Amino acid sequence: DTGVSQDPRHKITKRGQNVTFRCDPISEHNRLYWYRQTLGQGPEFLTYFQNEAQLEKSRLLSDRFSAERPKGSFSTLEIQRTEQGDSAMYLCASSLSLRTLNNYGYTFGSGTRLTVV
Amino acid sequence: GQQVMQIPQYQHVQEGEDFTTYCNSSTTLSNIQWYKQRPGGHPVFLIQLVKSGEVKKQKRLTFQFGEAKKNSSLHITATQTTDVGTYFCAGRGNEKLTFGTGTRLTIIP
To answer: Testing the interface with B: which of A108, A112, A113 to mutate, by most B Cβ within 10 A?
Structure first.
């Protein structure tokens, strides 16, 4: 297993266009998280899945954002009608969470850097 | 909502000096994790603390979790150029991690 993979690494899009990012987590991990990071800030939580179920979405996540994790494997994050304020690094992470043990750190991917012009 | 703050925001030290970053949460945490992010990189998991008052060491790094489980610290002894990066604490209140604001460490050779 080569860790968490994200595609693409960079995306430049015009304002108003839709974009979709993909994340392939570590196969043994049952949890998948999406975070957003802007320059000089810590990662900001967007949403997370346990297997295929989306369990929580940030209140900061507008209706233009949607995430899926079909079959509990890879995940996609779509942003519709992009705005300049959406420019950021979008990080995906995965972890293993068991009923008896919930102390595994997150493994992050290298991220997708989105620039909206 | 839960907020996690870190101080200082920036720290410049001479190589060989010690470094400490402090983390404070607005709510009691079930556990706290620390991550390191190198310039241009992504966060990398360092350690998790679970118990009140817990202290863990990794070579030159010492991590502490406060008695009230609302604060934590990371201390690096005798910094090296490889320690450069931003150090984030991340608190787990419910099921997800809330990351702190980070402390960016630069080393003067």
So the answer is: A108
Name residues 18-37 of chain B within 8 A of A (Cβ): 31, 33, 35
Q: Using one digit for the tens of pLDDT, what is the confidence trace for A55-98?
A: 989 987 889 999 999 888 999 999 999 999 999 999 999 998 77
Q: Do B42 and A109 touch (CB under 8 A)?
A: yes
**Chain A residues with CB-CB distance to B43 below 8 A:** 43, 91, 106, 108
> Phi-psi category of A59—alpha, beta or left, where left has phi over 0 and alpha has psi -120 to 50?
alpha
Backbone φ/ψ region at A30: left (φ over 0), alpha (ψ -120 to 50), beta? alpha
Calpha distance A28→A11 (Å, rounded): 28
In this model, does residue A102 exceed pLDDT 60?
A: no
For chain B, state the CA radius of gyration: 13
Inter-chain Cβ pairs, chain A and chain B, closer than 8 A: 52
Those residues with Cβ within 8 angstroms of residue A27's Cβ, 6 or more apart along the chain or in another chain: A1, A73
Which residues face A36 on adjacent strands?
A44, A90
Give yes or no for a contact between B93 and B30, defined as CB atoms under 8 angstroms apart: yes
With 80 as the cut, is the pLDDT of residue A106 above it?
yes
